[in-house]
Amino acid sequence: MLSIIIPTLNEEKYLPLLLDSIKKQDFKDYEIIVADASSKDKTLNIAKENNCRIVHGGLPGKARNEGAKIAKGDLLLFLDADVLLDPNFLVKSLKSFENKKLDVATFPLFFTGGLINKIISQIYNWWVVVTQPFLPHAFGAALLAREEVYKAIGGFDEEIKLAEDHDFSRRAQKTAKCGIIKSTHVLISDRRFKKDGWISTCIKLLLCELYMIFLGPIKSDIFKYKFGHYGEKTKN
User: How many domains does the chain have?
Assistant: First the structure.
């Protein structure tokens, strides 16, 4: 079985879209676990209406860990609430995962929006491919892992404030096989860029990468990471 784990905090706008894209998949042997950080909107009602299992979450790392604690599957798929899956995502990704004998996998990401978003997506995907052999990335928006490997490395480090997903893949690669599944992709909302600004977000991601390379996991709040503020109205 595949356990799909989704951290949420006030995701009434995006969660229904993700759940609908999951329902349309040809693959059906899955459960959906929503790890919610005390949402104040209709997120929990939506999860219940869609027969999701619900557990109390927190920041993304903790939420994924809490979801994994009750997971029944031997494969764990961690998804952000604001992503959409290609119609054949599950079938293609699981087939590639097994054919490549992977233990942890990430996917190409494409942000919604216009040309700038496409360029950012291409740059990110190129960087992930080029650095995979020595500096693996596994963006938590879509991360697939074997349950035994997840447990062996202790899951996500909840002390990390930002990029706990990349840290997860780098710890996993020491004893397991990590890779990129290119047979399918994930579409992710560009709300982070709209809310926090294009330039500032890209600079923050670059500095985050350099920090991890030279100083290690980010366990201080130096980058002022925010969770759950994307539901607020964007200023014009």
Answer: 1
